[in-house]
Amino acid sequence: MKIIKISTEYIGNCKNSFDPNTGDSLINCFCDVSDFAVQEENGKEITEKVFNSIVTIPPDIKLDAKNHQLRYFVYEDRNIYVLYDQNDDIHYFFQ
After folding, report:
1. Reported pTM
2. Among candidates 47, 50, 31, which has minimal Cα distance to 39?
């Protein structure tokens, strides 16, 4: 399988991308927190190697795989790549 590097950018995480009162999305890739939950349920887990070949993680997101249990997903319907930190229960979104 040939992997082609595509341009992605960090667009937010599950802690800062939804209005705490209404659940509405503050980023364009989800309608609201329920829409995110549907995407999460249908997300496809990918390998770290595939994720890293597509996504460049900005330097201000500091996650050490030795101290964090990390998982990698793609929400294919939306072309969203997700880094999930199981320790802190945070989803980082890239599109």
Report:
1. 0.88
2. 31
